[in-house]
Amino acid sequence: MSASILKLHNATIYQESEPILTDVNIDVQKGDFIYLIGKTGSGKSSLMKTLYADLQLKQGEGIIVDYDLRTLKESDIPFLRRKLGIVFQDFKLLPDRNVHKNLLFVLKATGWTNETEMNNRIEDVLNRVGMLQHLNKMPHQISGGEQQRVAIARALLNDPELILADEPTGNLDPQTSVEVMEVLQKINENGRTILMATHDYALLLKYPAKTLKCDEGKVFEVVQKTV
């Protein structure tokens, strides 16, 4: 049985009606940590959005956590996203509720009903990212780096097979970026698969891993020292 969690074969990635990446071939194996780099406008975000079905895959083949992106029905998208952990650049925490209630909202929205199980799960994921002590704080009461840790905890709630991190350190200063990367590295060491889009080359040097680059309409693997 293949250990592929994500496989794209001869895929074309569109930005609105225009193809931005062509002949894309990617194979992400269980336990991988892979960077996705490229200049602004090179197709990184469009590729990520295609993977979590915000954009449709119109050409080529794409399988992600056992879902076929070409034949994916609208009604299947919530189920696909439950098997993915998605971390955004701008955290996307709900500003009108505390950390606990932000995570509770996600669990209820994805079908959890037992209050004890939900509370235990929330405490578990917050503990993993070092944020348990901020359980009752509102998003505006914690720093950007702490908000991103909460966002990572939120991504872990449903025990995802793959985490898609789209510029997770993009709004953070260098020291905070390193702290967030340490959290992601630890999650990866525990067996979680991570695909991370980034433009922060300092992190690539500090935490080397397989790197894919979007450039001139193609995606290809690059050797670290030539990034």
UniProtKB/TrEMBL annotation:
One of its GO terms (molecular function) is transmembrane transporter activity. GO terms for biological process: cell division. InterPro entries: AAA+_ATPase, ABC_transporter-like_ATP-bd, ABC_transporter-like_CS, ABC_transpr_LolD-like, P-loop_NTPase. It holds the Pfam family ABC_tran. Residues 6-227 form the ABC transporter domain. Coiled coil: none annotated. Belongs to the ABC transporter superfamily. Part of the ABC transporter FtsEX involved in cellular division. Important for assembly or stability of the septal ring. This is Cell division ATP-binding protein FtsE. It comes from Paenimyroides marinum. The lineage of its organism: Bacteria, Pseudomonadati, Bacteroidota, Flavobacteriia, Flavobacteriales.
